[in-house]
């Protein structure tokens, strides 16, 4: 039975004219359109405080019943990055040689990927996003979480935008299966790895595959 009354406080959004809204929406689109996934990184260090701010931004994402069902692990320790690289490469080797279909391998040709993942050691930080399938209260009792995949996907999107805003680059890497990450990072069994993001600065000679994005007409339908 509910005993406490919900508390509401005023919300004061930034007030903009229509012209300002138009300008800012366009500028932000053009800025975000510059974001690319990178598979190569500079070994230039990235200050911990920058990573902390990125994680704070990710945690501003909406979540089911505001349960915030995520844990973000940030790794700069070289020995741990080394272990993660080797465990990831072991799974990726299996993937490229046995698990992935002919069609899948063909679809990946434009990216020129293979089982080797040196960027997992070169990038100064690895961020591992975990989804918490349930929470625990102070007494160790289970707390329900809702829409965990959607919530964690949103947080990961906010994180990628924050990484871009900080002038850094990342790769949304999902070595499959990823359960080695929970083991190496000592996470409890109700936390499941969702995404592994190497994060750092782009190297001077960075290259990305020539890709285009679908035009608005192809990805949207307006009902006016
Ligand atoms: N996990 C592999 C394969 C891979 C799969 C997809 I879907 C990609 O968009 C890219 C790679 C790897 O990381 O190489």
Describe this structure in words.
This protein has a four-stranded antiparallel beta sheet with strand order 1-2-6-5. It has a two-stranded antiparallel ribbon with strand order 3-4. Helix 2 crosses helix 6. The relative contact order is 0.20. It has a domain of 138 residues: NADH Oxidase. The termini are far apart. The mean pLDDT is 97. It has eight helices and six strands, in the order ααβαααβββαβαβα. 38% of the residues lie in helices and 14% in strands. The protein is α+β, with helices and mostly antiparallel strands and 224 residues long. 3-iodo-tyrosine (IYR) binds next to helix 3.
Write out key terms for the chains shown.
single chain, 224 residues, alpha+beta, NADH Oxidase, two-stranded antiparallel ribbon, 8 helices, globular, binds 3-iodo-tyrosine
Q: Taking strands numbered 1, 2, ... along the chain, how are they ordered across the largest sheet?
A: 1-2-6-5
Q: What's the CATH C level of the domain at 62-199?
A: Alpha Beta
Radius of gyration: 20 Å
Please give the largest β-sheet: 4 strands, antiparallel
User: Unreliable segments (pLDDT under 50, ≥5 consecutive)?
Assistant: none
How much is the average pLDDT?
97
Please render the helix and strand layout as text.
Blueprint: H1 18-32, H2 48-58, E1 70-75, H3 78-99, H4 102-107, H5 119-122, E2 125-132, E3 134-136, E4 142-144, H6 148-165, E5 169-170, H7 179-184, E6 191-200, H8 216-219
Helix pairs in contact: 2-6
This protein binds 3-iodo-tyrosine.
Residues 92, 95, 108, 111, 113, 173-176 line the site of 3-iodo-tyrosine.
């Amino acid at each position: 039975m509910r005993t406490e009354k919900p508390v509401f406080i005023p919300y004061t959004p930034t007030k903009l004219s229509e012209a300002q809204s138009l300008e800012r929406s366009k500028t932000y689109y053009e800025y975000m359109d510059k974001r690319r996934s990178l598979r190569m990184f500079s070994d230039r260090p990235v200050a911990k405080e920058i990573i902390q701010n990125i994680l704070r931004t990710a945690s501003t994402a909406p979540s089911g019943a505001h349960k915030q069902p995520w844990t973000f692990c940030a790794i700069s320790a070289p020995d741990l990055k080394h272990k993660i690289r080797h465990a990831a490469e072991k799974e990726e080797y299996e993937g490229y040689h046995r698990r992935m279909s002919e069609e899948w391998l063909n679809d990946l040709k434009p990216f020129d990927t293979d089982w080797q993942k040196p960027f997992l050691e070169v990038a100064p930080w690895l961020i591992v996003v975990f989804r918490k399938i349930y929470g625990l209260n102070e007494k160790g009792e289970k707390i329900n979480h809702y829409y965990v995949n959607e919530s964690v996907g949103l947080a990961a999107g906010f994180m990628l935008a924050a990484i871009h805003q900080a002038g850094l680059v990342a790769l949304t890497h999902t070595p499959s299966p990823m359960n080695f990450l929970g083991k190496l990072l000592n996470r409890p069994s109700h936390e499941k790895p969702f995404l592994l993001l190497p994060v750092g600065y782009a190297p001077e000679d960075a290259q990305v595959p020539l890709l285009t994005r679908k035009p608005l007409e192809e990805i949207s339908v307006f009902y006016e």
